[in-house]
Amino acid sequence: MRTFESLSEPEILALAISLEEEDERIYADFAEGLRQNFPATASIMDGMRDEESGHRRRLIELFREKFGDHIPLIRRQDVRGFVARRPVWLIRPLGLDTVRSQGSTMEEETRRFYEKASARTRDPAIRQLLDDLAQEERSHQLRAEELQENKLSGNARDEEDEAKRRLFVLQIVQPGLAGLMDGSVSTLAPVFAAAGATHNTWDAFRVGLAASVGAGISMGFAEALSDDGSLTGRGHPWVRGIVCGFMTALGGIGHTLPFLLADFRVALTAAMAVVVVELGLITWIRKRYMDTPVVSAAVQVGLGGALVFLTGLLIGSS
């Protein structure tokens, strides 16, 4: 691996060409990944790609003028000092915040490269071009804002914000809510059955912990294997599975933890209070993200929870 200080002027130009080509392709991938759900922002990425393509052409023209047609292969990973980029452009679906953060980081890194490269070159034409490109990279953020004003006029921004919200609900909220409901409701019966049968807080805790973890693993795999997200737009299956499994386990552990208390009556009262909080949280999520009326959500969730709770108590006391 080379140090930046050891690079010759032809190698500096060759590295600049490689960097611009990589940035151009990343912006193209960003545009392609956003086009279906965020077409206006995809147009912005197309504009940034065109900017990088123009930079690359100018660099290639100057290289050929100064050093001939052969451009040596030297890439960012061949030179010390460059931070390895996480390939977020390969993620599907792409998130708006991820793209904006990565784009800002790319422009900052490239600008600093041009400033440092300009200070190391002696040829006036090369230095002039590198200085110009550094200035253009510095102004890319302003250019992006101009593109946003042109492309995201009218209702486009509102439409993309709504699309972003729908994707969040589809890929995160729905599997998380399904897990929370399953963990909070389905584990009520074994936990309170064990508590009623043994009147031993430690036994009830172990049963609740086993039921919660087991349900989390089961729900996680069920969600991950339900579909691959390619047709439904529900996102990466293992992300959904992790979200669903974690929320399932969390929902069960919530009303299991009070049984770590030594006093049985206190533990039972605390567990029932936690159940009320869990059911209230589920009701709020359904109202907030699923637009379910509060009363309807509360009745549905409360009825289901009450039936499972009573089933557990009846079995435990029989």
Could you explain how this protein is built, in words?
The chain is mostly helical. The chain has two domains: 4-153, Ferritin, core subunit, four-helix bundle (Ferritin, Up-down Bundle); 159-317, no CATH class. Helices cover 76% and strands 0% of the residues. The chain has helices at residues 9-34, 39-67, 96-120, 124-138, 140-151, 156-186, 188-198, 201-224, 237-254, 264-290, 294-317. The longest helix is centred in the middle third of the chain and has 31 residues, at 156-186.
Detail the topology: elements first, then pairings:
Elements: H1 9-34, H2 39-67, H3 96-120, H4 124-138, H5 140-151, H6 156-186, H7 188-198, H8 201-224, H9 237-254, H10 264-290, H11 294-317
Give me the count of strands: 0
% residues in beta strands = under 5%
Shape: elongated
Order of helices and strands: HHHHHHHHHHH
Radius of gyration, in angstroms, nearest whole number = 29 Å
Q: How many helix segments? A: 11
Q: Alpha-carbon distance between the termini?
A: 74 Å
- List segments where confidence is low: pLDDT < 50 over at least 5 consecutive residues: none
What characterizes the major β-sheet? none
* Secondary structure: helix percent: over 70%
Helix-strand category? mainly alpha
